[in-house]
Amino acid sequence: MPEIEIHASAWRLVQVGRVVLFTHGPYTGRLAAIVEIIDHKRILVDGPSKKEYGHVPRHAVALNSTILTPIVIPKLPRAAGRGAVAKAWEKEDVEAKWEKSAWAKRREQREKRRALTDFERFKVMKLKKQARFEVQKSMAKVRSAAKAS
Question: Is the pTM of this model over 0.85?
Answer without folding.
Answer: no
